[in-house]
Design brief:
The model has no long low-confidence stretch (mean pLDDT 94). The chain has four helices and eight strands. Helices cover 28% and strands 30% of the residues. The protein starts with 7 loop residues before the first helix and ends with a strand. Strand 3, helix 3 and strand 4 form a beta-alpha-beta unit. With 164 residues, the chain is α/β, with parallel strands linked by helices.
Length: 164
């Protein structure tokens, strides 16, 4: 099985995929995507003039691998991608879950070029999709977990949990 040598090699293909995904899904919105791994989330939100929508992010040491920002009339939404080149595990899921609980993004993806790892059992055998839940209580959202296909530079939709 082929894989990337460094996790950083995943960021730009994932950013390009996310840009297209968001432009297709949110047609009348301004979509910004950025490889955000090198700086904290609040610094990117400041840079793109949307920090006022997410004041709680200031001072939190959150580094998202790929960040999507959707600007609509009076609303700004965030999309997170956490990239891994290793098999996914509970620690990876917990990291993204914490970011989601703190920042309440519109969507969040945990993607690995290697595979679902121990999360495969968690979701496909134990059926614990409830572990993907986040949101403000009124609206429950689910993180999406899947395999990143480095040949097609896209999500392997057969691996995606939950299915979309």
């Amino acid at each position: 099985m082929s894989n990337v040598a460094l996790e950083i090699e995943l960021y730009e293909p994932m950013r390009i995929w996310l840009q297209q995904y968001l432009e297709d899904k949110y047609k009348n919105s301004e979509v910004i995507t950025v490889d955000a791994h090198a700086k904290t989330l609040d610094s990117f939100l400041q840079e793109y003039g949307v920090l006022e929508y997410y004041p709680l992010t200031v001072g939190l040491d959150i580094q998202i691998d790929v960040l999507g920002i959707i600007k609509q009339k009076n609303k700004v939404s965030l999309i997170f991608i956490e990239a891994k080149k290793t098999q996914l595990n509970l620690h990876d899921l917990g990291q993204l879950w914490a970011y989601c609980k703190l920042c309440d993004p519109l969507e969040a993806f945990l993607l690995s070029s290697y595979g679902l790892g121990s999360l495969n059992k968690l979701f496909n055998n134990l059926l614990r999709e409830d572990l993907l839940d986040f949101g403000d209580g009124k609206l429950i959202k689910k993180m999406k977990v899947g395999k990143w296909d480095i040949m097609t530079n896209s999500i392997d939709y057969n691996s995606l949990i939950p299915k979309i």
